[in-house]
Amino acid sequence: MSQPTSEEVPLPEIMVFPERMLLADTTETLLNKLHEVKNVKRITVQGEDLPAIMKAGPGTGGPVDHPERRVIKVAGKDMELKVLVGRILVEISDMDFVPQAMKDIKEVCESVFPFNFTLEVGRYSKFKPTVSDYKKGLVK
């Protein structure tokens, strides 16, 4: 029996699920602190879309001037925040590092959030192409 390659084995993720949607300033602070946690491979934010253009209603096609849709600086790089963050997925480089990373991420969240949050370990984002990706031509 052959051993699975590293691409076949999904890396663990820690989901940070705050009780409230995060403002841009809070998101920026949190992401910068999470970036410093050891063994973090990737950080993904998810949340409500903050469109630049009105998609429906009487102002369809007009600009949306939402104060939370702005450029934030994360790890020294500018990043346009296009969502009102509701959860953060932190991918850890190896399953063995999850307990320490969980502890470190909990400390970061406690220092940033003045409200409750939940941490969960699992795999929340896809790690290999789906049939839909092939159909859409995203993978060849």
> What fraction, in percent, of the residue positions are helical?
10-25%
Integer tally of domains: 1
- Strand order, main sheet: write it out: 2-5-1-6
Structural class: alpha+beta
Helix count equals 3
Structure summary, number of beta strands: 6
Largest β sheet strand count, sense and barrel closure: 4 strands, antiparallel
How far from one another are the termini? 28 Å
Q: What is the CATH class?
A: Alpha Beta
- What are the low-pLDDT stretches, counting only 5+ consecutive residues below 50? 1-6
Oligomer state equals single chain
**Rg result:** 18 Å
By CATH, the topology is: Alpha-Beta Plaits
- CATH second-level architecture: 2-Layer Sandwich
Order of helices and strands: EHEEEEHEH
Instruction: Bin the strand percentage.
Output: 25-35%
Mean pLDDT over the full residue set: 88
Instruction: Please state the overall shape, judged from the principal axes of the Cα atoms.
Output: globular
Task: Annotate the secondary structure layout.
Blueprint: E1 13-18, H1 24-35, E2 40-49, E3 71-74, E4 77-80, E5 83-92, H2 98-112, E6 117-122, H3 131-136
Antiparallel strand pairs: 1-5, 1-6, 2-5, 3-4
Helix pairs in contact: 1-2
